[in-house]
Amino acid sequence: MVKMTSRAASPLGIFVCGESGRMGSRVAELARRDPRFRLAGGLDKGGKLPPAFGKADAAIDFSTPEASLVFAAEAARASKPIVVGTTDGNVYAVATS
Q1: pLDDT digits (tens, 9 = 90+) for 22-34
Q2: What's the pTM value of the predicted model, to 2 decimals?
Q3: Residue among 45, 40, 48 nearest 75 (CA)
């Protein structure tokens, strides 16, 4: 567990891609319970990220390889960091096909 260095620090806002999946729903649940985080929103399928994404500090993706590419591109356009935890296939193979 990481300790916050300042009591006045605001919670890290996260946006969960693949929110209804097993891992995405778990990440969202843990974020709701932990005061260090704020769940800014979530999305299940690929496509343009909703306005709630703009309120996030970062995204966590547990969707599909195809959707991960869309989410990563949208995150790059918005200059938001994204952690991709997609395990259902090979994102590189999807990107290069």
Answers
A1: 999 999 999 999 9
A2: 0.80
A3: 48
